UniProtKB/TrEMBL annotation:
Name of this protein: 5-oxoprolinase subunit PxpB
Range of residues in the leader sequence: none
Protein EC: 3.5.2.9
An example Gene Ontology molecular-function term: 5-oxoprolinase (ATP-hydrolyzing) activity
Top-level EC class as recorded in UniProt: hydrolase
Keywords, comma-separated and alphabetical: ATP-binding, Hydrolase, Nucleotide-binding
Organism, as annotated: Croceitalea vernalis
Ranges where the Carboxyltransferase domain occurs: 6-206
One Pfam family named in its UniProt record: CT_C_D
InterPro entries cross-referenced by the UniProt entry: CT_C_D, Cyclophilin-like_dom_sf, PxpB
Highest taxon of the lineage: Bacteria
Amino acid sequence: MSSYPITIKAFGEQAILVQWPSEVNDSILEDIIQFTNFLKRKLEEKWEFVPSYNSLTIIGEANNLNLIEIRKSIIAFYKALDYTEKPVRYLWTLPVCYDSEFGLDLDEVSQNLNMTVSELIQSHSENEYTVYGIGFLPGFMYLGGLPKNLETTRKETPRLKVTKGAVGLAGKQTGIYPQESPGGWNIIGSCPVAIFNVNTEEPCFVSVGDKIKFEAISRATYDLHKIEAEVGIYKPKKVLLND
């Protein structure tokens, strides 16, 4: 039996938007992921599923979709959702070097938050974050669960160039830039591991609903992991959360 009131509406000519209550929490996200997995087994047509925060966008590949009938089917499927099968979720540990060379905004952010750089790094790296969405750039993870003492505003003037692997803070979130891009997040470190690789069978190894923990590393370890990642021998640490 379903546990949340949802709304379902057409989203253009080829998509359906399913919306949950406008809250950001792990329970709603898990409900979305369970329903996504359920629909993948039930829907006969080819669909693309985009879960995030409190919504699920379902995009059809076929032409002339009858969205009214599909909407009815989705309502029925949600009422029949089986909650006994939990989605597979992982806790990934990703290395981050917080050296000043990479942490371009470390000093400014720590001053604004009335804490030392060491306290900022410790708070950021000892917490676990939930992947609430992947977007903006391929592989860009929107990580929720930032400690309140690290909440900070975006930069007033975004940078035209943020390097690949940069770890940033913005509002109530943290994240890693998977490729070079303009950006307005406060940069506090760098991750040597590629989050998105178009040449692999699964380009982004992290999924919405997974959790992320950062491990503070030295510059020497950063250089080592970067080489290991580039030659394809680095394997991020992961723990199955369903155990």
